[in-house]
Amino acid sequence: MQRRTMVFTAAAALLGVGAGTASATTPPTSGAAGPTDYHWTPNPKLTGEGQTNIIVWAGYAEEAWTKPFTQMTGCAVNVKTANSSDEMVQLMQSGEYDAVSASGDATERLIAGNEVVAIDPAEFPSYARIYDDLKLKQWNSVDGKPMGIPHGRGANLLVFNTEALTSPPDSWGVMFDGGTPADGHISVYDSPIYIADAALYLMATKPELKITNPYALDQTQFDAAIALLQKQKGITTQYWSIYTDQQTALEGGSVLAGTTWQVIVNLAKADGAKIDAVKPKEGATGWSDTWMLSSKAKNPNCAKLWMDWIASPWANAQVAEYFGEAPSNQDACALTSDPNHCTTFHAAETDYWKNVWYWTTATEKCLDGRTDVTCVPYTEWVNAWTKLRA
Amino acid sequence: MGQRLDEAARLSYDEAVLPGAPTPGPRAGARLSRAFTRRWLALGSLLTPPVAWLVVIYIGSLLALVAVAFFRLDGRTQRPTTSPTLDNLRQAFTVGTYLRVVGQSVLAAVAVTLLSAMIAVPVTFCVARILPRWMRRGVVVAFLLPLWAGYLVKAYAWKAMLRQGSKFGVDKAGGFLESTFGWSPGFGWLAVILSLTYLWLPYMLLPVYTGMERLPNSLIEASGDLGAKPWRTFRDVALPVLLPSIAAGSIFTFSLSLGDYIIPAVVTERKVLMIGNLVERTLLAPNQPLAAAFTLWPLLIIVAYLLAMRAAGAFENV
Lengths: 390, 318
Fold this sequence. Notes:
The structure holds two protein chains of two kinds. By secondary structure, chain A is α/β, with parallel strands linked by helices.
């Protein structure tokens, strides 16, 4: 008995020393390149548990910035990549994860289901330097209290093969009306939230439907969007869910136009695909992601450290540039390897984001403020999408 | 005939001993009953854990799954509530689009099964009847070798082989099928059936091979001596003997195909949906109750199929 206690004490002492050295190590040196300044110090009040399990969008937790994090905090990062907001909600319901990089269409469900908890900005030094038009939004706050740390934002773009479509398209019509060489080679994002893309196109092309917000659709507007998607099926070759599937199809040339993320375009271009991407004139759907802390987090401190780290200038610049999105931290713009990154992705241009409709969960109470009708809630979007695809 | 005689002998032996059982002295009786208790204890301790596992974890979770199908989904939190409803079952069993998916899945599973049987019968005939004895074992091992490769590896390998070329692509030639034979079925139902047949064929080959080995040469020879042509011999002599083996193999090919959801997602670029895909996407929605209602479909179909195959004698010979 006594022996065991002694072993315990020894182990605890060792662990203590280990943790001590780990957390004391501020910016480590990265090999021959000389020391990198990571522009971040772990909050000393948070003692790491040794690891954290996080749910991320593909490309949000790459070794380039998870490794320095682990070196500085002693928190190993266990990454689970999710392919859709729906999957993120489902994974968070399992209670096995500490944090999630949730888009606006997941955050509301996570908040409603008490899967996530409010954060105390004081614990996150990075929070102060987040762009103001990303803070305390309807999808990431409750009663004026932040529910997470904004990560970054981007628009869902129209990708096209530059050899097949020699004059660059500037309208989603390529994907909905057809009549271009891309017919039969269209790639569509396989998620109920894509119904909003059809609604967005109708918003511009069918003013008589009076759609003012692609996430606030009454039954008539919703049916029109579904009818448009039904028509689109005829020219579609692929419904992508895993980003690499679209990437290979773009490289192989079986897909000539589609809805995409910038990160896919970057990866496919790097492999030699002759493609380009634009934000069409009708505007686009998009995402504004928020790191949220699970209400059942087993490693809350490591998760909080991670959330602060990923929103800190250097790490935020890394992830924004890798994924191809606008960073959430204003100081990140000075640290991107491409000095024009923030200009290219319109990080600070409030105007650019005016016609980008961030993913949001549709609710029965219309999000556009109408009270004379009820809107189609997201569960119905899910059913309609499954039926459309079946 | 000889077996029947043996059985009769054993029966009469038991009968002869049984009435005599009480005759040995009390000590012998106690010893006997002690041995009996001990054997039951041993048997009980051996069987309890696996039976408990089967009942609690296997059947229990299955029942829990079925139970969820009767609960309403909370639309805001997307978690099942405890208020009962039949709406999920109504959707899963009456909505036309879903019924079509179920029907197409069954047809695909039947196609895979028929194709597997059509490949397995001639192939195993060659191996069991024509190849010299020393080669047979090696070939049977070869049948099973594909099972050593990862499922996903095989799925993506088929996708790579089925890929159709495009003049706008980085690699314009297309996959193995198109670049070698000039034609590929592309990413559709045919792709699903081909890939599934490849995946589950070993499970058909093995029982059919066993059945083929048991097929007595004398029957084939007798049929030939009586003037039957090879086809007639196959249809009226070999096939009835082989049928239970084919039925046994078909249980694997049919049920494994019916439940698959990765192959249709991978080799059709998610254009084709089978029952498994319905379950998967409803579960991820997340709408656990409706997903549970969908899972009742394969459950019912497989039970019906097993009953049909029992009638065909699948459980008698294996």
